[in-house]
Design goal:
two-stranded antiparallel ribbon, alpha/beta, 15% strand, seven-stranded mixed β-sheet
Length: 290
């Protein structure tokens, strides 16, 4: 024989259902993750030039551009520079392809430098995949997809700062450059404002010329399929003149010989950013004004 529910039980059930619908009405959803601590308005991702001086230089530049270039007075910046990373490793799901981002460095046990809102204090170095702010290594997603998944990071603008590690791939094959741009765009949230800037020129002329060709091909790829992003060339007559053959802009041995011809010093990175300010300002204004 069926029992009629008590008035008290019915009242409790109604209250629970009303509360559940209220939560849905206010947008509460258990499947939506909270935005990660330190998530900035401007998120800059790139390679080891960021962790060798360009990271602090670019944070300073964006700080100086606050209340200008379409930036708000309180716009925040966070930077993550991962050694040996490329656009391909940021946008690949395969373990081998994204190993530069997700594998623990066998010597140093860390593989990235972080700055701005993501700063870890005096020691800027972290290992991607470890710590609440750097969970980019899920097996089913590329690192770039993981950055945005479920609102993990929600920047107003994302900027990629890359070049050197993809030089041979892009210089040898315009088709590979085109493929990398398509993969990059596919991993961005729909309508995400974006900038791609190639990194600073190195010391040696032969390497500069090779990277210039790579820049030409990646610029052509963005012009063909990536117009939603603003492309800012890091190799210009002014930046090449500043770095190429200028030993003072690179780390040197006691003898004065350049020991690292690929990563400009922090002081040199600040000069580079100063030379790039006008072009970067225009790109930021275009992207944030869309």
């Amino acid at each position: 024989m069926c029992q009629t529910p008590s008035l008290e039980g019915t009242d409790v059930t109604i209250r629970r259902m009303t509360f559940a619908f209220a939560l849905l009405g206010f947008g509460f959803n258990a499947s939506v993750s909270a935005e990660v601590r330190g998530s900035p308005d401007i998120l800059i991702l790139g390679d080891s030039q960021l962790s060798f001086g360009a990271g602090t230089a670019i944070v300073a530049l964006f700080g100086a551009m606050q209340d200008d270039c379409g930036l708000g007075q309180d716009a925040t910046v966070g930077v993550i520079g991962v050694r040996s990373s490329t656009l391909q490793s940021w946008t690949s799901t395969g373990r081998s392809a994204k190993s530069a981002i997700c594998d623990v460095d066998p010597k140093w046990k860390v593989n990235a430098g972080v700055y701005g809102t993501l700063s870890q204090g005096e020691n800027p170095y972290v290992q991607i995949g470890q710590g609440e702010q750097f969970q980019f290594c899920s097996p089913e997603r590329s690192p770039l997809e993981a950055v945005f998944h479920d609102g993990y990071y929600r920047p107003d603008l994302v900027m990629m700062f890359l070049m050197g590690n993809a030089t041979e791939r892009w210089a040898d094959s315009p088709e590979a450059a085109l493929q990398d741009v398509r993969s990059f765009l596919a991993d961005l949230p729909k309508g995400q404002p974006c900038i791609f800037m190639t990194s600073a020129p190195p010391y040696e002329e032969k390497v500069v010329r090779r990277r210039q060709k790579a820049q030409d091909n990646i610029a052509a790829a963005f012009a063909k399929v990536g117009r939603q992003c603003s492309f800012v060339p890091g190799f210009t007559p002014e930046t090449v003149a500043e770095n190429m053959g200028n030993a003072a802009n690179f780390r040197r041995l006691a003898s004065g010989k350049v020991k690292d011809p690929y990563h400009p010093t922090e002081a040199a990175a600040r000069k580079f950013m100063a030379l790039q300010r006008a072009a970067l300002c225009r790109a930021v204004a275009v992207q944030l004004g869309r």
